[in-house]
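hey so i finally got around to running both of the ones u sent me last week. sorry it took forever, my laptop kept dying halfway thru and i had to restart like 3 times lol. anyway pasting them below in the order u listed, first the sequence line then the structure token line for each. didnt double check formatting much so if smth looks off just lmk and ill redo it

first one:
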Amino acid sequence: MNGKRSKPVVYVVSDSIGETAEFVVKAVASQFNSGRVEIRRIPYVTDMETIKEIVEDASLSGQAMVAYTLVLPQLRQVIREESERRGVIAVDVMGPMMDAFGQLMDVDPHMEPGLIRRLDEDYFRRVAAIEFAVKYDDGKDPRGVLLADVVLIGVSRTSKTPLSMYLANKNLKVANLPLVPEVEPPEELFWVSPRKVIGLTINPKQLNEIRTERLKALGLAAQANYASLERIVEELEYAERIMRKIGCPIFDVSNKAVEEVANNILQIVREEQQDGE
């Protein structure tokens, strides 16, 4: 199509989805003629032939230019050379900034197209995992057992909630359930794979100290049944019977940091994922 168009055309070329370049083009276009431009976005461009065809089309379109966000240097070089050869205005939206960052940080860029989008997706997965951990914390809704990547079970004060949040930051959906002798565990707990369930136990004396301090912090009597050694031993024995019945892995959290226990759990999860592939 020869001759000038009623509206200028901007070809937005990207090796990812092209949102960044299109946003910049729209922002700049708004400063000229009320932003009346036609934007043609061409995403996921990864070969030289496609670039040559785009530049050729731009040269035949009359009033047109190319704006591009290409990570790989060889593709950026091709689009520069083709644009110069055909007399097409071409703007490298991301290249100069990437080169400047390389000088500032004295390191080479990853050269991975679409990396920012993958980072965004990772962020949203993490947020979703954290929201899941909050929703299904402390047995609030046993249906979470069926939806979770990992289910933590154990008596009160065995680090179930801190571990849930730590693992959620690793993009795992975690539900946790308290085990109490007077309360039957939900039937959903026995429907899922035993490898998906993680039992948490602890030294009785250490748990006694933790619960005693917890009662003091709440302004309650430290002699309450909740913190008595006899009650603690009863709870731990009950919890172990449930864990043995399920056949799940059991981790002793006594004197261990959340990070250490979480890394052990992550190893179990990775092994399970590999077995499932």
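and the second one:
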Amino acid sequence: MIVKDKRFKVYLEASTIQQRLKVLGQQITQDYQGKNVVMVGILNGAFMFLSDLCRYIDLPIELSFAKYKSYQGTESTGKVAELIGFDDSIRGKDVVIVEDIVDTGNTIKKLTEDIVRKEPASVKIAALLLKPSVYKGSIPIDYLGLEIENRFVVGYGLDYDGFGRNLKDLYVLDE
């Protein structure tokens, strides 16, 4: 598979991703019975993960979105920029942050700090992917799809310079 100027190969098939999302959806359903839950998707990468995950959650949920950026091309910039913040009231509600991938943890840290200032009842993290070898954070990932190696991935919402988000499978850079 070629995305822009780079070659990628299949890393995780869509069926594997969906099997894991079903388990996460069941966990969230069990954990939030009788609660007022807001799922906050981090754009742009988490849109596909959030959409599919919600289909496996058997609860009334609210959806909200925020947009943060920390990547340029295939590398993390080390800086987290808030592009679109929160406009919905989350005070007193149980918030689940839905992130596509956690590597260094800088984005999750900034996002969690921003949400906590809005006084929610609780905050938990759902991440499709975690790169444990580079995760420097102390914030627990409460609902984790899969751990992966520290390699650049594209597809299933994740991109390379804006391209490849629409791929149903997850691809890794073919080096």
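quick thing i noticed on the 2nd:
The CA atoms of residues 3 and 163 lie 7 Å apart.
anyway thats it, ttyl
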